[in-house]
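ERR on first pass: missing label on line 2. Operator R.T. fixed the label and resubmitted. Corrected input:
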Amino acid sequence: MKSKRLIIKAGHTSSQYWKDLWRYRELFYFLAWRDILVRYKQTAIGIAWALLRPFVTMVVFTVVFSNIAKLPSEGTPYPILVFAAMLPWQFFANALMDCSNSLINDSNLISKVYFPRLIVPASAVIVSFVDFLIAGMIMLALMAWYNFVPDWRILTLPFFIMIAFALAMGAGLWFSALNVQYRDFRYIVPFLVQFGLYISPVGFSSNVVPEQWRLLYSLNPMVGVIDGFRWAILGGEAKLYWPGFLLSVALVILVLATGIWYFRRMERKFADVI
Amino acid sequence: MSETVISVENLGKKYILGHQMQGEYETLRDKISNGVKSLSSKLASTLNGKRIANPGIEEFWALRDVSFEIKQGEVVGIIGRNGAGKSTLLKILSRITEPTTGEIAIQGRVASLLEVGTGFHPELTGRENIYLNGAILGMSRVEIKRKFDEIVAFSEVEKFLDTPVKRYSSGMYVRLAFAVAAHLEPEILIVDEVLAVGDIQFQKKCLGKMKDISDSQGRTVLFVSHNMDAIQRLCLECIMLERGRLVMHNDTVSTVQRYISNNLYRALPSNWIDISNAERVGTGEARFVAVQYSSLNESFSFQPYSNGPLEFLLTIESDSSRSIGSLAVVIFSRTGTILVNADILSLGKTINLKLGSNLVKLRIERLNLKAGIYVIGLWLDRTGESSENEALDYLESAFEIEVFNFESVGFGLETIGPVTCEFTVEKYEN
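pass 2 clean. output:
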């Protein structure tokens, strides 16, 4: 069989990039597999950490926002209200942090082997997604505990998961590429994540935000994602604020598109600067 | 039929060296402050009408105008001193980094092996790492599964397959890593100095495997090494790089010869080496100022070689006439172990120095050292009983020499231990 001719030319990124990405799809799987395997090695309770962390946070948030701050729950049990937001938020936060450090952590790979670099941050997001699925089991347990039956809207959940995925990926690509050149982002990202928790409607419903500020509030794309999750999971009373939601989705698409563009642009220099 | 599988045209790679950068990486602060600086210098230059080059930035061409072609099935060695651009060339060919200028056309699947065990994860078991490493090197899962037993057998670590590799000895680690790499089946294989690992037996096995890959399977191999022995055994053709430029592309024998005679890195034989400013201790009442060494064998360009003679000419300047009881040429390994101490003290001889310049010849009749790089030290003292600081002159590392092996027989693999000896082997039938 005649093999394909490869041309490497100064200033031209390989036209085979996307084809290569497909060819290396197994590496993608192996990197994610490695991170999942390694993640809980030599821990006493292992994978239970993926359950424990969101659960404890949920309890704390419920106590603080419902029992102490007395915020409205809109007819659903407060723990479910919190957890419906906690799921996408923790997924996003973990994915963003892992993603932004992923290239640095695999710097020996970057400088010694060729493969489409996009695989590294993408597999980091996948790993966080696995944690997300595990944490989803708590959601099911909570629903069973409170005898809460979701309606048909739960079927739209994958769509909102996709938005969360796209946002984590887009922002992750930006930060991972920036992190290669400017290690400052190692400190900026945790700060952003911490800060983001307060300006996202995780512990409370976004309905507590005054009407005239809702659109401005939706400039935080996680608002759209979290509202979408609540809308799909809680059903019934939960309403979606459409202008805000569409704005959030548009922002997510923008972040993802520019993220890929920036990453592809910087990718060529990774091996030289990492 | 052999067609061109790699063609490289006017390849160049430029790196920007920043001189003010303290750490390894640029930070935002640097970027911003440099931006402000360059802006202000631009402003200043427009005011003055002069252009000021940014002093913090220097261009460095790791490769420049390199062109060559390699045909299918050829095994090509790439040689050159440190910093000649060998690794950069391999990195560009394996698409890890982009060239600044030029074009490369490659026909066929490339696998590069720039480091043994890239991507090994210490927490994972040997079995898991075989899969991971295989995938990183570009093998598919099916392919790894098919060759799994072969890889395990080659690595000789069957027993520890389910142990995390962090508990492996370094030898086991390297064997496993090389075993995975050795079972790659690309059309073009790019190998950086990775054979210099593991014990001798395993090295031999690796070399054999490499030879097998090129001989019987008709694959194209690019091979970088400082080990001229390995190069000569594996490659028919060599490319020699010097300061980023291709200076020779010819058959291995002539290229290696040129490389050896061109070895500017070390002091050349049969030439006066000025050591008057070398780092030294001692009183300095008499001191070495220049030295020359030679194996006296013109056909080897006077390069020192195993089991050959090695002669030193030493110019010593003395501030008065005096008698010297201890004068020595000391040969160190590169790790600083004294291997040879040729001291006139052990001959029971003394040398009388006159005021001014003196010339002394010291000849090692037979240099029992294997091929390699050694460091030459020089010692001068009245009695040989003084400490280093009380001696007249002592240079711990005056210069380096490279000893070659011109009489290798058979497989000729260099074994460990720096010292040669003559020996025979015979088996008795009982």
